[in-house]
Sequence to fold (172 residues):
Amino acid sequence: MPLTPLDIHNKEFGRRLRGYDEDEVNEFLDQIIKDYEAMIRDNKELQNQIAGLQERLGHFANIEETLSKTIIVAQEAADEVKNNAKKEAQLIVKEAEKNADRIINESLSKSRKYALEVEELKKQAAIYRARFRTLVETQLDLLTQDGWEKLEPPESRARDRDSEPRVREIVE
Fold:
């Protein structure tokens, strides 16, 4: 157990012949007591400061730990948002590709349909032209037969012969 200033003050030394000067020893002991009391006060103040600094250190350690956890949570949240954005972007791209494929397929289908319709119309036009040509040729043949000439006056026959090559040319 450490000495206290009171222990030093109450300390009694035995007396011997030719011992130390008692006043000088008491004066020295008083000086030691003052210094010892000052050291004890300084020590208590330093211990109080250490306790206060340790408390502040604990507080800052808690803040540091909280900030560290907050940063980790924020980083995880940022990573999650980034991953979700990537997934959403991939889904949007896939959806756009599907729509593009669908639009292309529909366009190709319509294009084929229109091409078939055009071909059908061309065939019908060719058939119509052939029938019309046949009809016109049949009518021309009927007109050029001998039976009609008897019914017409002679001057109109000459005009019809001149126009017949032009009619055949137009029909062909």
Notes: Residues 87 and 93 are 10 Å apart (CA to CA). The chain has a mean pLDDT of 86. The longest helix spans residues 22-144. Helices lie at 5-10, 22-144, 146-149, 154-171.
